[in-house]
Amino acid sequence: MSGYTNYSLVTYWGINVTCNPGGIHTTGNTFICNDTDGKFVPNQEITLPEQGDKLLKAGAKYVFPYMYWGCTQATYAEAQLFNQHDEWIAKNGSGQPVECEKFQGIEQVGINYTSEGAQDFYINEMVMPFLNASSTSGMFFDEFGLTSFRYLHGDTDQQVQQMANASLATLSKLLSAFKAAGKVAIVSLKSSYPTDFIDRYFDILEEYKPHGMYYGEFYCSGNCFGDYSLFQKAVSKGIPVQQHVERVPSQQDVFNFRLAAYLLAAGDLCYLGAGSPGDWTPTGFPWVPEYDKPLGQPLGPSKQTGPHTFTREFEYVSVSVNFNTSEGVINWS
């Protein structure tokens, strides 16, 4: 979408980091674990910092390695250190360790951010040394707050609130470290989280901008208004945004709705990635025809024309969205 460069696509690769006995390895752009006897198949090994530098040399504009926020996704040795500190591991209401999603069969435990030792180890020993070993632009942290609100079933409201507060405190520490290093942390958020948590999250990103970047998604099967509201809030605070819009070639009407919703609020430092469902490799982020169409300067902010309907005008395009019916119309001039 030419004519207003800040609305254009940014080259973006998610890179999975995971714990494995032989270190962090990859083939192509997907990281996988060694098997149990230490062998790696296929026989190609490259460390994550090397992979990031390789992508940059290949012409990628920005590269952001990927980590789940609430899990011990790291080298095997680092994960083992967590096992030696019981107080660093998140527990459920029954006192059992919280297990995160398995990756290639590797168990990963939730991080108990109420422990300052866990906070400091995560930032100073897991994240920053890894980041400083590469020329990558920063790091992408997915599922921020997930340990606070999804995994801790059976906990009291007070315990959940303590974890939420600790996650926010850790985020503030992390962004302070990224600011000092001149790096950018992209941090995802879900619209289903409590309002006060969302407000404090955005306050922290605003304090450390441009080193804190909001990552949002229009994957919604419903009306997307909750996700749109987060996006709009980030833009209103001048926080950089990476908005991922799911695109299935056979569903152009769905993509039009999501793209139109993006254009309703997009502003300076907003970046769009149109990707295939579940495909985080470069082929999952194809160059789509809309990127070649003129956009031009916005002629003003969006206007609400009904209870669920909005419009916005640019120099070369107008968009309208109905969040109730999940319809979007894009008219290119």
Number of helices: 8
The oligomeric state is single chain
Fraction in beta strands: 15-25%
What's the overall geometry?
Answer: globular
What is the radius of gyration computed over CA atoms, rounded to a whole number of angstroms?
20 Å
- Overall strand count: 13
N-to-C SSE string, H for helix and E for strand: EEEHEHHEHHEHEHEHEEEEE
Query: Portion of residues in helices?
Result: 25-40%
Report low-confidence residues grouped into runs of 5 or more: 1-46
Strand order of the largest sheet: 1-4-5-6-7-8-9
What's the main sheet like?
A: 7 strands, parallel
Judged by helices, strands and strand pairing, the structural class is alpha/beta
Question: Outline of this structure?
Answer:
The chain is α/β, with parallel strands linked by helices. 31% of the residues lie in helices and 19% in strands.
Write the layout of secondary structure elements.
Elements: E1 14-16, E2 25-27, E3 30-32, H1 48-57, E4 64-68, H2 76-83, H3 116-132, E5 138-142, H4 146-149, H5 157-181, E6 184-188, H6 195-208, E7 212-218, H7 225-236, E8 241-246, H8 252-265, E9 270-275, E10 303-304, E11 309-313, E12 317-322, E13 327-332
Parallel strand pairs: 1-4, 4-5, 5-6, 6-7, 7-8, 8-9
Antiparallel strand pairs: 2-3, 10-11, 11-12, 12-13
Helix pairs in contact: 3-5, 5-6
